[in-house]
Amino acid sequence: MSVTAPAGFEAAGVAVGLKSTGARDVAVVVNRGPLKVGAAVFTSNRAKANPILWSEQVVKDGVVEAVVLNSGGANCFTGSFGFQTTHQTAERAAELLGVGAGDVVVCSTGLIGTGDEVFRAKVLDGVQQGVAALSAAGGEDASLAIMTTDSKPKRAVHVGDGWTIGGMAKGAGMLAPGLATMLVVITTDVVLDAAEADAALRAATRVSFDRLDSDGCMSTNDQVTLMASGASGIHLPADEFAAALTAVCDDLAAQLQGDAEGASHDITIRVVNAGSEDDAVAVGRSIARNNLFKAAIFGNDPNWGRVLAAIGTTDAAFDPYDVDVWMNGVRVCTAGGPDRPREDVDLTPRATDLVVDLRVGSAAATIRTNDLTHDYVHENSAYSS
Amino acid sequence: MSVTAPAGFEAAGVAVGLKSTGARDVAVVVNRGPLKVGAAVFTSNRAKANPILWSEQVVKDGVVEAVVLNSGGANCFTGSFGFQTTHQTAERAAELLGVGAGDVVVCSTGLIGTGDEVFRAKVLDGVQQGVAALSAAGGEDASLAIMTTDSKPKRAVHVGDGWTIGGMAKGAGMLAPGLATMLVVITTDVVLDAAEADAALRAATRVSFDRLDSDGCMSTNDQVTLMASGASGIHLPADEFAAALTAVCDDLAAQLQGDAEGASHDITIRVVNAGSEDDAVAVGRSIARNNLFKAAIFGNDPNWGRVLAAIGTTDAAFDPYDVDVWMNGVRVCTAGGPDRPREDVDLTPRATDLVVDLRVGSAAATIRTNDLTHDYVHENSAYSS
């Protein structure tokens, strides 16, 4: 059901030829209200695609009527023609839906530099067909239409007592070819105002999508949009909604990690007893971005030396000679020296658990990443636009 | 000739069984004077190997009598036993040479966590044999003894008018298994005082070794040592010596890049018209560390979108929509939009030239890196300790 699980939403996913396979490639998600509350977070890359530049303006007033998403082209670095394509996409949807173009978010994903006349015509055709196909059962089709190199759609639903949150995501980790990676739409029928939606979304993404780092490469097109219809009539305490929203985001983040291109291990890096949460995140990210560590995990090698060498590049508070490292439950390093032998660690399962105990304070953070594999290199070098 | 090319130096390289192949694995380089000036730069990783901890103290007074180097074990994260091994290595060499242990630099390279009793005994044996074998023709043997996964030794000599600089390096890029990567010894018979040696070495390494970034992974054991014997009796103007030293360092850095494990392209990233040199370095490094760009180059794909997505993660001064990108002489991106078609770019040669024109100021910097290949993944995952 994904984005149409909550009351008040319709969606569609149609095929207009942006994908050479003929699969669905344009999705439309519409909020039928009564509330039209929206919030979004965007890539922090300064190199932003046209849909990002447009949508950043759309969400400023906290009102979002609909989201149009396309795969098969990122519409990034395509000049003013590309920006006009995004603008026309929003206008076409607004016209058909009887709303203002300034309340229509646009998302694109695919190769950077793709956004010519043919692309524009297909996207506009997709809007037309998508709006015509809107239905309260359209969530699944929509989740299929945003896939690029994803091997499967990503959907999540959280059902509360009389209220629901639904979501869909695309992205093969953070590492899809062309860098157009993660698009997420989350819907809810909870009663929220714009400030509540914005705060809840920022809090949830900070500890979920922001801590998924499969290859350190930041996209030009990443966007997470939350829409609230209020159709349940229920207003929740802020932390109850925040917790549920975070669970949905974390579920989708785990699905993205699990489908990361070429990966053979899903690595959960838990940094504990840090001096601050920022320190824990910095330490976790330094490991997630260390190619030598990631290649070792691919080779089922519990190479804790590479972990210490990675974290030694950060400014976080810890003593390199007072750090413990655990891999899949086995303490391989105690106080910066060897502990259990490597043979004790079984790294054959896909799920890999790394714990780094900084022994400084009580803060913690979890970063999700993947290993560095032959298939990663293959899929990101042999890709043809 | 390498380190024995300048007057006043002797060296040796011997085999004591640290390498399972039976190849040479301990090198000794001795300065016979009359000056005993030394300077060194070290990895900035906070996770420092025992030889780094020792050698940082040795060079503080600007006096270095000798350098002992071993391959076959990094002696990193081996506890106080490992530090004592380094200490005993310096003491044994000092005793045999009739100098103070506090003037003997020690360097180790190999797997992190390696440094047990067997390792210590072999290294001490190597010191004994190495000192006995010292000769003014020993530079080549020494350069062989420091190799690990290097496919060939790295040596450089600069001959001036009555003076000489010689050097040797080991390292398969920055990316050797176990993270024990780059060791360099440079010798000269120029007359230098300690402050001059230190200043010249820092200036030269800043624009050579510091700008070699094959995989973003910083070693625990990196060290570059400069020794000056003054045996030529010649004192050069500071810039003349600095220029020659920089040329030697750059030559060795290029050899390291060219022998980077698994690489199929040597990529020279030239960032021009930046607002500052720091900005140019930051932009170049963001590209050098972007796995998607590096995989694209492996696939001979001139994917300039990945270049813009990489530099967009920096704080450097530029407008993403006013940047030009050239690959192997072809302008593929003008003002943040597509220019020449990808078919115009021939990426089949190993030498790859990327120019990023930020169009902001007049500063520039060059970063050397390599592509991300199947062989890189293989060599860094299948490595067995």
TrEMBL record, chains A, B:
Catalytic site positions: T181
Feature type site, description Cleavage: A180, T181
Keyword Acyltransferase included in the entry's annotation: yes
Keyword rRNA processing appears in the UniProt entry: no
MF terms in GO: L-glutamate N-acetyltransferase activity; L-glutamate N-acetyltransferase activity, acting on acetyl-L-ornithine as donor
Positions contributing to substrate binding: T148, K170, T181, E261, N380, S385
Gene Ontology BP terms: L-arginine biosynthetic process; ornithine biosynthetic process
Annotated compartments: Cytoplasm
Catalytic activity as recorded in UniProt: L-glutamate + acetyl-CoA = N-acetyl-L-glutamate + CoA + H(+); N(2)-acetyl-L-ornithine + L-glutamate = N-acetyl-L-glutamate + L-ornithine
Ranges annotated as spanning the membrane: none
Record EC number: 2.3.1.35, 2.3.1.1
CDD domains: OAT
Stated family: Belongs to the ArgJ family.
Function: Catalyzes two activities which are involved in the cyclic version of arginine biosynthesis: the synthesis of N-acetylglutamate from glutamate and acetyl-CoA as the acetyl donor, and of ornithine by transacetylation between N(2)-acetylornithine and glutamate.
Protein name: Arginine biosynthesis bifunctional protein ArgJ
